[in-house]
Amino acid sequence: MNKYIKALRAPFLAGSIAPVLIGASLAFAEGYFSLRNFIAAIVGVASLHTAANLINDFHDAEGSDAVNFRVTPFSGGSRAIQEEGLKKSALIAMVVFSLLLALASALWMMKAGKPLAIPIGLLGLFIGWAYSAPPLQLMSKGWGELLIFFAFGPLVSLGAYYVITGHLSLGSFVVGIPQGFLITGVIWINEFPDYEADKSVGKNNLVVRIGPELARYLYCFIMAMSFMSVIFIVGFFKISYLIMLAFISFPLAFKAMKIAWKEYLSYQNLIPGQALTVKTVVAQGLLISLGLIISRLISGFIKI
After folding, report:
1. Runs of H (alpha helix) within 112-249
2. Number of domains in the chain
3. Distance CA 63, CA 72 (A)
4. Considering the domain boundaries, does residue 126 fall inside one?
5. Nearby residues of 278 by Cβ (< 8 Å), 6 or more positions away
6. What pLDDT does residue 15 have?
7. Terminal CA-to-CA distance of the chain, rounded, Å?
8. I need a labelling partner for 9 at 20 to 30 A (CA). Which of 108, 187, 241, 304 fits?
9. pLDDT value for 201
10. What is the extent of the structural domain holding 35?
């Protein structure tokens, strides 16, 4: 059983659930909420994220994961195949189950009068497939980080907002941008330990393309932009200034940046920086959500 749980990489689901919370909290701030739709959004997004993780393990099993000896708890794949003996056929079965669960969630939303849940979900699925699977395999062509930014930030907050309110809005898209930067930061810092293995098999992500030394500058830039974008959102869109509670999580990000700057070549010493990056994703997501919820409680009662 352990090998199946390990293959799911469940702790990383926080990276997709946090923007769901943000999108749902924005809907709440505007006077809308449905617990059933909120749960359906979490189930759908988590299932698609799990499928993407499994697809990634499937295609990396004989690629970079097979030659990667600088494995950390946050990078190098789940290792369920390499260390636990999980068969590829089992991975495929788990992918199918995850996709069926996501489909059930989307169909339920469509029946509830939210037909765009299916194309939004299909776009997320396509991105997860195109990131890892040939012939596109965009993670090896320098496009993977951009896809992750879009798919695990603005797209998720937009989708969560839609399944609760029944309509789309620009605000629900841009409010996911800070999380998009942070989840890109997670991918970015995880590419440092994988650098040698990725380079040896032609997995030319951006860290491989520009080299670790320059990549550390961009990691710090990405992490900083996740907070600068909050100021931009408050200044240019009708989003409550209370989302600036996000800055309470900045010390986590700053500490992660300091570790990455100094230890980018030491995969063991980099582990605390990887952990802090993930913690920043969760903390910032919760704080932005809290700010949106408080803004509604201040302004008046929610309409059901």
Report:
1. 117-132, 144-151, 154-165, 170-174, 177-190, 195-200, 206-210, 212-236
2. 1
3. 17
4. yes
5. 11, 12, 14, 15, 74, 186
6. 83
7. 42
8. 108
9. 87
10. 2-299
Structure tokens at 13: 């689901």
Q: Kindly report the CATH number assigned to the domain that includes residue 168.
A: 1.10.600
Residue from 22, 57, 28 nearest 42 by CA: 22
Asked whether residue 304 is domain-assigned, the answer is no
Joined tokens for residue 54: 């499994």
Nearest Cα neighbor of 125 from 176, 20, 177, 49 is 49
Which pLDDT does position 43 carry in this prediction? 93
CA distance 138 to 130: 6
Domain assignment of residue 236, yes or no: yes
Q: Could you tell me the CA-to-CA distances from 224 to 102, 178, 250, 255, 256 in Å, in that order? A: 33, 10, 9, 12, 11
The parts of the chain modelled with pLDDT lower than 50 are: 302-304
Q: Are 23 and 156 within 8 A, CB to CB? A: yes
Calculate the alpha carbon distances from 152 to 48, 82, 227, 231 in Å: 11, 27, 16, 20
Q: What is the pLDDT of residue 303?
A: 47
- Tokens, residue 31: 């006077």
Query: How many residues are there in the chain?
Result: 304
| Angstrom distance (rounded) from CA 176 to CA 158 | 8
Residue 116: burial class (beta carbons within 10 Å; 0-12, 13-18, 19+) = middle
Q: Which residues contact 297 (CB under 8 A, 6 or more apart)?
A: none
Per the CB < 8 A criterion, the answer to whether 45 and 16 are in contact is: yes
* pLDDT value of position 7: 66
Number of H helices, E strands in the chain: 15, 0
For position 149, what pLDDT does the model report? 96
